[in-house]
Design brief:
Layout lengths: L8 H13 L9 E2 L10 E11 L5 E13 L2 H16 L4 E3 L2 E8 L7 E2 L6 E12 L5
């Protein structure tokens, strides 16, 4: 018997988002899963938000991804966040790298942007929920 390979929910969200931003107004904005020291904005930073496995089927219901849009000013941070949210809301069934995502929605909506106290850069934040498989499909 083989051991299942569980899905990295943040990487799956990142891969789909990168595909969807191609040709959009935020095409040049890098999408990261780790903060790079000294990296200047704009950039999108994604992190694990806590996932719940369905008790009877191999699904995350939901998989939560924390989404941060970093920018030089408040308007740019909000613009990046809203553009990405609009792209992900159009998400239907997507299979990427053996991972099926069935739906995506914002759990929190856009939260009040705020400046980072250390850098002065602005951050717009929200949480996305995904219904997706919990194992890589063969």
């Amino acid at each position: 018997m083989t051991t299942p390979t569980y899905v990295d929910t943040v990487a799956a969200f990142r891969d789909v988002l990168i595909d969807r931003i191609a040709g959009s107004s935020i095409e040049a904005v890098p999408v990261r899963t780790q903060h790079k020291e000294g990296e200047a904005p704009p950039f999108i930073l994604l992190a694990e938000g806590g996932s719940i496995r369905h008790p009877r089927v191999p699904l995350y219901a939901p998989a939560r991804v924390n989404f941060e849009a970093w920018a030089l000013d408040e308007d740019q941070a909000v613009e990046i966040y809203l553009a990405a949210a609009q792209l992900m809301h159009r998400l239907g069934l997507v299979i990427k790298n053996g991972v099926a995502i069935f739906q995506c929605f914002e759990e929190t909506g856009l939260q009040q942007p705020f400046p980072d106290p250390d850098t002065g850069w602005w951050r717009a934040f929200g949480v996305f929920d995904l219904t997706m498989v919990d194992q890589v499909m063969p």
